Amino acid sequence: MPTLKEQFWDPVAGFGVTFRTMFKKVVTEQYPFEKKPTAPRFHGRHQLNRWPDGLEKCIGCELCAWACPADAIYVEGASNTEDERYSPGERYGRVYQINYLRCILCGLCIEACPTRALTMTNEYELADDNRADLIYEKQDLLAPLLPGMEQPPHAMLLGDDEGDYYRGSFRPAKNESEA
Amino acid sequence: MTDTLTPVLSDNWDAERSWTLDSYADGGGYDALKTALGMEPGALIDLVKDSGLRGRGGAGFPTGMKWGFIPQDNPNPKYLVVNADESEPGTCKDIPLMMASPHTLVEGVIISAYAIRANHAFIYVRGEVLHVIRRLQRAVQEAYLAGHLGKDIHGSGYDLELVVHAGAGAYICGEETALLDSLEGRRGQPRLRPPFPAVAGLYASPTVINNVESIASVPSIVRNGASWFGSMGTEKSKGMTLYSLSGHVTRPGQYEAPLGITLRQLLDLAGGVREGHELKFWTPGGSSTPILTAEHLDVPLDYEGVGAAGSMLGTKALQVFDETTCVVRAVLRWTEFYKHESCGKCTPCREGTWWLVQTLARLEKGQGTEADLETLLDQCDNILGRSFCALGDGATSPITSSIQYFRDEYVAHFEHGGCPFDPAKSTLFAPAGAHA
Amino acid sequence: MTVTSKEGQEVAKADLVTLTIDGVEVSVPKGTLVIRAAEQIGVQIPRFCDHPLLAPVGACRQCLVEVALPGPDGEPRTMMGPPGRVKPQASCTLTASEGMVVNTQISSPIADKAQQGVMEALLINHPLDCPVCDKGGECPLQNQAMSNGRGETRFVETKRTFPKPINISAQVLLDRERCVLCARCTRFSEQIAGDPFIALIERGALQQVGIYEKEPFESYFSGNTIQICPVGALTSAAYRFRARPFDLVSTPSVAEHDACGSAIRVDHRRGKVVRRLSGEDPAVNEEWITDKDRFGFTYARQDDRLTHPMVRDEETGELRTASWPEAFVVAARGLQAAGATGVLTGGRLTLEDAYAYSKFARVALGTNDVDFRARAHSAEEEAFLASTVAGTGLGVTFEDLEKVGTVVLAGLEPEDEAGTLFLRLRKAARKGLKVVSIAPFTSRGLAKMHGTLIRTAPGDEAAALEALAHDGEVALDAGGILLIGERLAAVPGALSAAAALAGTTGARLAWVPRRAGDRGAVDAGLLPSLLPGGRPVDDAAARVDLGTVWGTTVGHEPGRDAAGIVAAAIAGEIGGLVVGGVDPDDTADPAATRAAIGAASFVVSLELRATDVTQAADVVLPVAAAAEKAGTFVTWEGRQRPFGKVLVESHALPDLRVLAGIADELGTPLGFKTVEAARAELSELGGWDGDRVAAPTVSTGSTTRESSTTDGDGLRLATWKQMIDDASMLDGDDYLRATGRAAVALVSAGTLAGLGVEAGANVTVTGPGGSATLPVGVADLADGVVWLPAGSDGINVNRDLGATAGATVSVEGGAA
Lengths: 179, 436, 816
Description:
heterotrimer, A: 179 residues, alpha+beta, Alpha-Beta Plaits, three-stranded antiparallel β-sheet, two-stranded antiparallel ribbon, elongated, C: 816 residues, alpha/beta, Ubiquitin-like (UB roll), Rossmann fold, 5 domains, six-stranded mixed β-sheet, disordered N terminus, metal ion binding (chain B), translocase (chain B), metal-binding (chain B)
């Protein structure tokens, strides 16, 4: 024969957590309806940065591809010419692909980058319904043109040679924003 | 016998038009040539060996022994090359000699070439001294006309052609193998040894290369004998030589004295350090030899004595600096010279001198710390004995020796935030009695 | 690196010296440099200027080691100087001596510090360029800075800078900032190639590699300087920024451009060859290759590359894409219907492919009408090849050239036609070999070999060879070598005279063809009278010997040669043609070859790229390029140079697989479908030890031709192909083409005076088939002879002039 406690209290007691929680603030995130900001140094989608005049920082050196443990990056370099210049100096990245099916977002690539061309954004929505679209091309990765930037190819606008760019001894751009 | 001047080479410098053949012949010139042509070449080599004459170009290698290295069974022609590319900072003995008495050298060349059985001799003169080249060319022309040069000299059956060749302005061409390259029409850069020039020198043939002063000393030895020559100087450094005093001296110039004289004696002869000042440091043999200070005034200036004092006799170019001189500044100027003159063949000298200049320039401006001094010394350590030829070694000498003796002065630059000296005061046009 | 030669292993004990390196005793041959002696015990002393094939220079000072030599008492004394200091010695210039004690960076702190000091000095003016430098990742400076350098720089001052790369030729770029001034490139150019167009200029830290602006670095061997550059100072325009070392898959292979069989390394990235380097083979090319071998590889990926089989559509008459099975069937039916069929191949086939053609012709087509000689040829040549060359195996070798006293060249310009051979001849000539050349003039190559010219007008070579037997100055004997070029085929009697000369003097004879596949084609029996392995067609025993392997009988009548096949096709005696890689313009009569292809009722073309032949063909079958298949090239020495497939992803079929497909449809299978199987059958077949054809004894043409004089007003034409010219295998390699030598007609000074124009002015050369205009120059030719490059600057002598070497042409000043 169950006791009174067993008969009346215990069934209710089982809902204790439920009732208590009803009056607490919910932890459920309403993603994708509500998006929360990530930690500032969250490793998200990559970005290829630009100099303040719009020239690309990437020199096509492939060190990111070399560093990548997942073999997710493919780069081909090419020569800048006087008529067609994409980056300061001799070399630029003609082809730049990151395969987000392989990328583990470890960030070794951005550590390897000698010009700070490659950094990571906080964007994490890297999903798609087909494989081809998850290979991001250079145009997908390049930082947007900010005010004062000009779409390459164009001549070096901030200094006389690449040394001025690398040493940071360039003339101030119209809009001094760190890409 | 080390207390007086012994003018032999410079004996006729004050004669009327001393550079002409007539003047030279009046003083007994070319008599030694006649004596020599009457001797066996081998006997001449022995004579020079017995005299104890050592190379006056800096290294002090026994001249007779050098001649003895020429393989006489080699089928190739033999060559005598006189190194008259005098460009060491502070050195001014060969050029005055050739200017005042070129025939002394020409006579020496003929006797020396005869001794090593060479039928072709070259005098490689520094290209910048055009007036000397002209005098030398005229002297050679006179010698040809007088029958001292050319075919069958004075009926001896001996032929000699003498060519005066002007260099193109490179200090490195004073290095004997670079000189040979230059003489052959290439860029002057030192050659790999072995083979040594005595075996494969000019045009891959046996070649003797001697300094002007060494060759010019030969006629006097032939004339006066080996024992006369040996009676001068010290036990291992025999004979007389030209000391060139320059810098803060009352009467700068060439002083011919027996080897082993001291700077104190020479300064007495030269009227001392310029008035109102005292000796601070000096080089015994040009800028490539470690500097010495007032404490070394009594060091006998012969090969052994200077070596024992931690330096080298070198070219006996005594550059004297008084207390108004900033040693850092002086060393920087020298180092700039070496950087400019490095031929570029080997890494330590080419890159090392480039770096030394930049470091020293920074230190002179007072932008440095004592740690930089250690770096500087280590840079020198990485050049000294690591470079292809002695140019790199010479470049480090003023730096290491100046830090050895004047480390405080380097430190003073850092503390002062710049050079504590007034450069104007070290100039010769500074008012007398000025003090640092 | 090439270090130990065979001589090194054969030295007697007495010629060894024993020294101690890092406490390890090692015995090396006398004269060995300390740096190499150290390699023997596995100690790698860092170095930049040192190169085993170049004379020591001791410039970089990176290889400093501490050395002690035994004194009079036998105790080792460390080499000192300046006073009181150990003086480390450059191990790359120091020869090992008995009792020497060497302490390298491993056991001597002094040597280690000296090396670190030199490395630091090298790096102070070296730019931090590694991320954009082509050498990054395979750079001796990077590697040795890691192994023998300081971790951190102490240099905080200003680096020396130069403007970024300058072209020292169209192909070679120089970045002076990166240069460590080791002088490897200048020494290579002077000592090995003999093209001292680059030299060190200026002095001190501003010293740099320089050129004389009016004479850029136009050498056939300039690419080697890029490979031996220990930093990224020299780069090639073709490979610049194309890839990083870790992208590349490297495969050893064999160069396909000439008959030297140079070892190469092919680097490819994602199915595309991006660069080729010299391989190391002391017996063949040492460490050097020609620029053509190095840079000539983009021909295989031009836009006109054939990718699919094509058949001529019966309704439209146009070529349309077809499947392989369909193409095989169409080809087989067409050939069956065409009746008698001839087989023409070029000289670019591998041994296995050539063997497949040979067997295809005999077994599947039942004919001996097969010839690989898409060039001037003769029956005399065929007899010469059958008697002296085919199936003879390894004869005269590259190394032999260094051991003999005299080499006579006839009808051969090694610098243009066999670059690797030229380098070896030049190396030997620098050591005393006497080179004698029977040629129209002293070419640049001959001058670089310090050779002697026997000035011979084209057509007179036979007489010159005959005269050589009695030449007291050349005095060819058993210690001599006779190198015969394929061009002698066009001179009646020349090959007979060469064979006779070799017979009477005892000199050894070698035939040096121009193309990589020529010697293999001879061995594989791609000749109308010759079966594989040198078996004569008309020798019953040879046919039986072959039949035991092939399991069939072959025709006993020698077939038609290439000219015969062409003539027969025009005459309608032959209905079908199988053409594999023949450029009609290479043949002696381009018009006739084109006419034959047009006249034949059915043409099967096996080709890489679209050509005149494929346009006219009824079935076009695309085949694999050299990098897309395995194979074997046979060098002029007779040395087999097998190589594997480089682009393993490629599905292109080699010729032999295509031929096997047609043969299957014809109902006569070849018995192999892979390179390996063909190789196995070739080795099963073996050589022929039976009777050989006798050497030809054609009387010299000089009896019928007046020696060295002009026929009427005309000039005698001398011509050959320059190394870098309009060849289709250089298509796409524009930087390389730009380094080629410009087309210049050369005449003697006397002849030029007769023309009334100055050297450098244009002249028009007119032959039977047309004319060409090009600048004229002077060389030491005989009067009445004009030399033209056979295919440079858009001028093809065969096609445009309708003339071959020895023909009479007229030359006039001015443009046509």
